[in-house]
Fold this protein.
Amino acid sequence: MSITLTNAAVLNINGAVAESDPNASLYYMEISFIAGTTGIQARLFYGYGATSGQTFSPGNSGSSLIPKVIVTVNLVTGAWSSNTGLSGTVSGAGFTAVQNDILALANIAETFAVNNNIIDGTQVSWTAGAF
């Protein structure tokens, strides 16, 4: 799945357009279970490129040069901020859905690791009590 951008992400090198990407795609997520007042955080990394059908192709100028948006979401409070300078708070049903999805992903990843003997032990499911 991709996001068709309202305005293409343009990469200029020495004043010339080297790339103009029409799409963004979520391609990486990091979840940090941090003890203390910061709570559980998710960082979402959005990359730019183009899509053909539903295949995302990163831009031609190399992944290190492609603009990225990084959003950090506090999964306890709903507060979020991005490296683009935007911030806010997500709440209500949308926030509950994000929390449930994150819990499901964490449990899937841990179950995979235990069931395939990547990590020796017994997986104990995360629940909404983690928030």
About this structure: Helices lie at 92-115. The mean pLDDT is 84. The longest helix spans residues 92-115. The chain has two domains: 1-89, 91-131.
